[in-house]
Every structure is written in C-alpha cells, then in structure tokens.
Amino acid sequence: MTFNFFATCPRGLEVPLINELSEISAADIKKDDGGVHFSGDISVCYKANLFVRTAGRVYWKVSSSEYRNEQDIYDLAYLIPWHKWFDVSRTIRVSMVGIRCPLKSLNFAGLKIKDAICDRFRKECGSRPDVDPNNPDIRIHGFVTEKELVISIDTSGDTLFKRGFREETNAAPIRENLAAGILYLAGWKPGIPLLDPMCGSGTFLIEAAQMSLNIAPGISRKFAFEKFKDFDRDLWLKICEKAVEEELDVTELPIFGSDISADAVEMAKTNLNNAGLLEAVTLNCSDILDISAPADNGLIVANLPYGERMGEINELRDLYPKIGDTLKKNFSGWNAYLLSSDLQMPKFIRLSVSKRTPLFNGQLECRLFEYKMVSGSNRSKKDQ
Prior knowledge:
Layout lengths: L2 E6 L5 H10 L3 E6 L2 E6 L1 H10 L6 E9 L3 H9 L3 H4 L6 E7 L7 H20 L12 E7 L3 E7 L21 H10 L8 E3 L6 H10 L20 H13 L9 E5 L2 H13 L7 E4 L12 E6 L6 H21 L3 E7 L4 H5 L5 E7 L2 E9 L12
Parallel strand pairs: 5-6, 8-9, 8-11, 9-10, 11-12
Antiparallel strand pairs: 1-3, 1-4, 2-3, 4-7, 6-7, 12-14, 13-14
C-alpha cells in the first residue's frame, strides 16, 4: 500500500532533503517551502525516519479536503478512522499551522480536530484518548490554507534532529539536521579533511563522523510510528539490522575540532563518547586565531557566535577581520563555510564571498557564506 508523506526541514535544505529521499526510493517527490512531499510504502516511512539526516519530522498525510468553516474541519476529522491507527490508551496532541487562513483562530480549529478525534473514539471504543500537551504518544498536525485542510499524523515523535545521544549543549547549538545539510551544501564527502574551529558541543563533528562510518542518524532513538497499531516490528527490525551491518568500524578520521573554551571541548568529548565516536575525531582546545591547517586542503565549517546585544555584536565585528587574516594566512587551498546570523559579517571579515545561501537555525535567519581560500590574496577588492 502506498501512503503520502511530508518531511519538514530547515528552510534552505529542501534540495539535500530531496536527494536523501531519492536514495531511499521515495516516489512522487515534490519540493515545497520548508519541506518535501513524497510517497511510498510503510518501509519508506521507516527508512525516512531512520536514515534521512536533513529532515525535521515525517508526517503521514491521512486526509486532504476543502473546507469552509470550523464545522467542516470537525466533520472532516471525524470521518478519519483514528481507532484503526492507534489505541485509545495513547495520549494525543493536536497542533495547527495556517497560511492565508481565513479562520479567526487556529487554536479553535485545533480544538475542533481534537473534539472530532475524541468523539470518534467514543463511538468506536466507548472511551476517548487523553490529551498530553508536553509528551504525547501521538501528534496530530493540521495544516490549513485559504480553502484546503490537510490532517497528518507525525510518524517521528521527537523531532528528528534529536539523534538520541547528545546530552551536553552550548549556548547557541546548531541543530543536527542543519549541520548535516550544511555539509551536503558544502560538497563535503567522507575522506575530505574537515575542521570545525568553533566546535562547541561537537555537532558538525558528530554528523561528519556518522556520515563517514555509514551510521544511520536515527539508530539510537525511538519513533512515534512504533506506537501505531499496524507497526510492523519484524520489518522495522530487519531494516535496523541491515543498517547496523553496513556500519563501518570506528577508526581515526580526518575530522578535526577545536574551541577556545575548555568547557566546550569537554562537552564535545562527552557527546562524541555518547555517540561512540570519540576515537574517530581529533579535538583540541585552541583559539581559532592560533590554529593551522591539519592537511594541505580540506573544508572548514563553523557556526559563528551569535551576538544579541550591541556590545557583543561590536566585539564580534572586531573578531571577524582577524578570522579573515587567519584563513588567508593558514588555510590556502581550503574552502570555508561560515554560518552567521550577522548578515554584515562579510564586510568585516574582508574576504571575497563566493556564495551566500539563506538558511534558518530554528527561527533565526542566517546565511552560509562560502570562501574559497586560493593561493595568494583573497581580499575583497573593496578592501584593497
């Protein structure tokens, strides 16, 4: 049986997500803003959750219809055979999102869906599921436009960037699916030397090591689809066993991380150890201004610090030209990919930007700036 799905992702990562879905034999792939539509059998759903690194959630679309008002929303939700898909003992939560929605209140529309689910369960089972707003077993998602209502069930549970092993985070961590997407956008491949000189809690390092060793990003966690009535445990175990069989042995990789903060380096070590990857990555406590290239060529990725107050922003803008000097002096032959929410950063780092890619780290609008560190001067002509 074929089902319709929608995988979310950080805006700007739709193309890498399309490529990943193609690799697991998803069909009818169609790009949208902030995600990708696709179809497939239940094994494709399981594989999308287990293998796809750039996705945030995988929604199973169970209903799509035109509506006029809140009563239509209730009626459409009531028609769905919820009792066939999960047990009345499961807790639920309904969320709503709208674009150009004419309804007065999305919250009220969500309540109508919740009421419809509960009423349908009462009719079929004699009781209703409880609501858990914080940690529900089943998440139901409503998406409304001017005329259409799409109702979906979240197959993921916790968002997919939660890989299941990170315990330690710094003040402004980059999400795992965004980090993986940046590696894809940068053209990084396993075997290419990689350096994160502001590694924080080690997200880029862990994602790169997992990719190098062919470790499925979801292998250490649970998913919501495991709570569905029709969950095929044998199929799921077969998919997981094959994934584990295809993992490579952990060995030292050309992946390097450093941070000026000793606490950050310890956080990265803890997270790498929890992921079973500590011996694969080389870590040091170093100032970005003092480091040298660990290989003749390679790729630098960094999630630059986020300055929220004017004093912090001014301090960062004093730091940027020093970073530019370090890249120019010590990293000839390397390509650098710097993520920053400061859209004026290139003016201060004073290097020629070869590409700017809009991305979002959560709700924070950022740019991924590409710098190709060729031999000789790479100064922006405006600064010469």
